[in-house]
Each structure stands twice: as C-alpha cells, then as structure tokens.
Design a protein that fits this description.
- This protein is an all-alpha fold.
- Helix content is 51%, strand content 0%.
- It has two helices and no strands.
- It is elongated.
C-alpha cells in the first residue's frame, strides 16, 4: 500500500473539521518548502571579513565579574 493510499484511508476516518486542518497544514508545508527553495536559490555567497575592525572586545573579557565570583 502506498503512502498516499494510507493517508487517504486515515483522512476518511476524520471529521470534516479535522480534514480541513490537515489540508491547511499540507498547504503550509508546501508554501514553506517553495519559499525555502526560493530563498536558497537567491542567496549570494557570504564574504568573509566584511565586519573586520567593527567588533571590539573589552580588555577584561576573560575576567570573572565580581558578582559571579562567589559561585566559583
């Protein structure tokens, strides 16, 4: 038995309100899949080093803050 046949048998047992929910869910899955294909196709390759010199780290970055020293 194919997956489609199994799905149709399961759907036949559902009340109409649940069938509508399943249909809406399937439509949302299709929309998300087509949207992700569109996004991945339109993405350009990332460029490394684009933020070079933009990010600064504090000199005391590795030091434990006073408020946490009691837990160590």
């Amino acid at each position: 038995m194919t997956l489609q046949q199994l799905t149709m048998e399961a759907m036949a047992l559902l009340p109409e309100s649940k069938k509508l929910q399943v249909l809406n869910f399937a439509k949302s899955l299709n929309a998300a899949q087509s949207a992700s294909k569109h996004v991945s196709a339109s993405k350009s390759r990332r460029k490394s080093g684009i933020l070079k010199g933009q990010v600064k780290m504090a000199d005391d970055f590795d030091e434990t803050p006073e408020c946490f020293k009691e837990y160590m």
